[in-house]
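Why does residue order matter? Because the sequence determines the fold. Keep that principle in mind as you read this record.
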Amino acid sequence: MWKGFAMAEEYWNASLETLPWAEVENWQAGRIAAMLSGLPARSSLYGRLLGHQELSLTGFADLARLPFTMKDDVRWAQDQADDLRPFGANQGAPLADIVQAVSSSGTTGKPMYYALTGADLEVWTDAIANAFFTAGVRKTDVIAHLVGLPMVAGGMPYADGFRRIGATLCWLGGFPTERILREMRRLRASALLATTSFGLHLTETWDAIGRETGVASSLRTVCLGGEPGLNEASIRERITDGLGITRLSEVMGLGDVVSCLWGECAAGNGMHFNAQKYVAIELIDPETGAILPWREGATGEIVYTTFEREATPLVRYRSRDHALVTATSCSCGRTSPRIRCIGRTDDMLIYKAMNVFPTAIRDLILQRFAGKVSPMLRIWKDRADQVRFDEAIPVDVEATAEVAPSAYPALAEEIGQFIRSQLQVRIAVNLLAPGSVPRGVYKTPLVVVRG
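Structure:
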């Protein structure tokens, strides 16, 4: 939350951001209906998925009659690539109209590629600017963009969004960490964009390297995303205090849909949906697929429909992101739901008969043992496709400097017992000295594979 915050909210798109949510959905329904009418003809994927469906919509609720698009459907479509359609069976526009390709990071498997026409690029840039404007970035900011890979969803598209806002873009991603910290001082960076784990990493040397420059910090606003973590108070506190900032905002998106869709306003307590001009959202029960209402306290999987996408459109795309709805109204005046991402279906582990998100293990450890452990944890798998554990799940936990090495065995035992009591899951805790868990310059994975 913005310290000393007093509400005098500005909006990127006031008419939509403050419209009652039911009216937003009604407005979207007409645009979805128009998009669906020609979709099977221009996308072979949707000719396959929707070819025998009734595509007329009389209201937003009718969207639930259509089938979901699954990740495997998108992978199949990309596997159909040929010389005329390098983006596969869901390339909904001629190659001559496509101006940019966006890549997934490839951290969870074979990279995926998404195409943008000139019109799609305009949609993305506007939606991304909207999300970062909600998150606190203004045209008076000098923003340090710390994602070093231009082609990924958080690379060039984010740079376009910052420029659309009018902020001064300083793309420092890719430089060594020490240089990033020095140049941020010299350039008087007032805002920063990074992954959550890299933001944590920066706190470890922010003050020491900053003092070497002799330039006081201008940093006020930090936007972090790309991985869960900011739902945990101890992580937020460590970043806020470690970087000496007044505002910490979480952001989230999908390269498949729009690379930044959600942004946290100054009121905090979750991210608002900011792409309602171009994308519709549903909340579903991940087990049954049933629609769930946007209600405070609800949990479910987010489903996206892009109704202003030419090149690689998506209808009822199951994101595999599991969200907690933190609120459906806000003092900032925005009417879109607010959420925290609590895990991904892909990340789910099974200990005997118990399902558990790795983030749940991490968050509970940080809540109970704050001050004794750092946010840098690693959960180990024996192979990439391992989901089931019949023995205790191996977890590396990094101790803080306040814990004496002689106390590590007892603390490890206490952590293991606490997780078992809370989650009915056994973990094998390996306590490590401070700084032992490797830090990444992009993402620091919570789950890693041996070898």
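The two ends are 40 Å apart (CA to CA).
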